[in-house]
Design a protein that fits this description.
The chain has helices at about 1-50, 60-80, 100-120, 130-155. The chain has about 170 residues and is mainly α. Helix 1 packs antiparallel against helix 2 and helix 2 (about 60-80) packs antiparallel against helix 3 (about 100-120). The radius of gyration is 21 Å and the shape is elongated. It starts with a helix and ends in a 19-residue tail after the last helix.
């Protein structure tokens, strides 16, 4: 009988360890995805700023930068359920109207289409500022979901960045 108790205790311990590993993996994936979506949004912002100030935007450079940003974000988001982490933390917490990677791909494609038109002297299908607003909404939606996931994993609320440091800890510019 003692052997059976030991086996059950070992299985329970293994289950606890597997759950902890899945949560750590989910946290790593959520953090990676947050970094990727921020990088993608910043890249969109730079392109729009260049367009608004009349600086030429190199479509070849765009084609070099954006696919890798999109790929990294897509890999991070797709790793979440594949890693088994979704069994412990539901993803997404609030259903999106469309998958995040589709929304990022669409926004990137529309911006590229506008860049191609503008490179031929034809106005884009909408003002660059509208493309930026679209990207900012997508970035906010994804980041919000990732923050909710992170809070569920850690059991702690993530404060806004402005609350992370006291006034005396903030770098002086």
């Amino acid at each position: 009988m003692g052997g059976g108790l030991l086996q059950r205790a070992k299985r329970r311990q293994d289950a606890v360890e597997m759950e902890a590993l899945a949560k750590r993996l989910a946290l790593e994936i959520a953090t990676t995805a947050r970094i990727c979506v921020q990088a993608w949004g910043s890249a969109v912002e730079r392109v729009v700023q260049d367009l608004e100030t009349g600086r030429p935007v190199d479509v070849d450079r765009f084609d070099d930068e954006f696919p890798s940003l999109q790929r990294e974000l897509t890999e991070a988001i797709y790793r979440f359920p594949a890693a088994g982490a979704a069994a412990h933390v539901p993803w997404p917490v609030v259903p999106a109207e469309r998958p995040f990677v589709d929304r990022v791909a669409e926004a990137t494609g529309l911006l590229r289409s506008d860049l191609l038109s503008m490179s031929e002297g034809i106005p884009g299908s909408c003002p660059p500022r509208d493309r930026l607003l679209m990207a900012e909404q997508i970035r906010w939606d994804i980041d919000f979901q990732l923050i909710l996931v992170t809070e569920q994993i850690t059991g702690r609320e993530i404060p806004p960045a402005t609350q992370l440091f006291s006034a005396e800890d903030r770098p002086q510019i």
